[in-house]
User: Fold this.
Amino acid sequence: VEISSSDEIGQLASDFNKMTEDLRKTTVSRDELAQEVTERQTAEEELRSTLEQLKETQAQLIQSAKMASIGQLAAGLAHEINNPLTGVLNNVQLIKMEMERKADALSPAELKEILDVIEEAALRCKNITQSLLDFSRASKAVNQPLSLNEIIERVTGLIGQELRLQNITIQTDLKPQLPLIKGNPQLLQQVFMNVITNSQWAIKKKSPTEGGTITIKTEYDSQNDRVNIYISDTGIGMSEEVKKRLFEPFFTTKDVGEGTGLGLSVLYGIIKDHQGTIEVESQVNKGTTFKISLPAFHQKETV
Amino acid sequence: MTDEKKFKALIVDDEKVVRDFLVRFLRLKGIEAKAVEDGYQAIELARQEEFNLLFAEANMRKMDGLQIFREIKKIRPGIKFIMTTGSAMDEMLEQGKKEGAIASIRKPFDFDELNTLIDSIIE
Assistant:
């Protein structure tokens, strides 16, 4: 509006013009705001799609880590089985070849010697499939009252000699009158064997000749009514990374043929089945302590 | 058959049962054979005695089959290499072939294949 007078009309026109100008400014800033909102929405969408991509990548990574462990297990198992299988299959074929050439090519003593080799090799294959079955937890659960101290004594009796030969000392500190626990004695024995074998490996890994100490301690935690067992070693210890993945099936730090990566994951499953917990503390080059805790069992509970 | 005495095999495998089988088998085929359990022993023995046939497991802790072949080739340049394996991945076998292995055989061995292979070598 063109202003041509200075009277009230002129004033009104001037106000009107000012309002128009303000309105225009508001419209501009609203447009700017709208554009900003659109930009932010786009940015948010981009962020969301990036996040989704990240999640997908993470899932793929987890999957490929699993595949790698299964691949590692398969390679380890193939190696462990194929060697004794060579001893079975190829020796049988060899005997056949010799007998085809000459019926009495082998004396009874020679034949027996080869049969012994074949038998031992076949038993090794059997042990491997047996531990696989243990892993799939096919063994029946037995729920009987047990003395943890007795199980420990049985285990140390079984492998104490072997450990002493390797310069490894076993120290036990078993609490007298420890309450009983309930469970499967064979499986629990396997658990402690496994942990001790792991300690033995860790000590030898630190130094093949120097030896070390494995300490086994039991105690009763009356507050929580649980029986605890600590198995400590002076071995090589483990990194945080290893500690995190310790009980994953197929995870192993050992070379092909040295371990299938089943031991500690089997153990974890068994302890869980016994309503127990297992914790690990470890320092690289100092040693590792496994703490296994199981619910105490009191006779009067028997139904 | 007249040339067969010329062959002398060195077997490297960390599994006794495999070493024993290969030694027995090769001796039956008329090939003199000695077996050791790791690469260091193999190199040591190859320095002292002449071998022209090498069996080595691809996947061993101390030194793998291919590394052993590389070292022994320096001492016995004409040696023929057969890679054996219980688990090795295909890439390793391929690499073995690329570096001059005349064959790679998987455990447990295919008896006929092994037999034919040895016959073709001693012919």
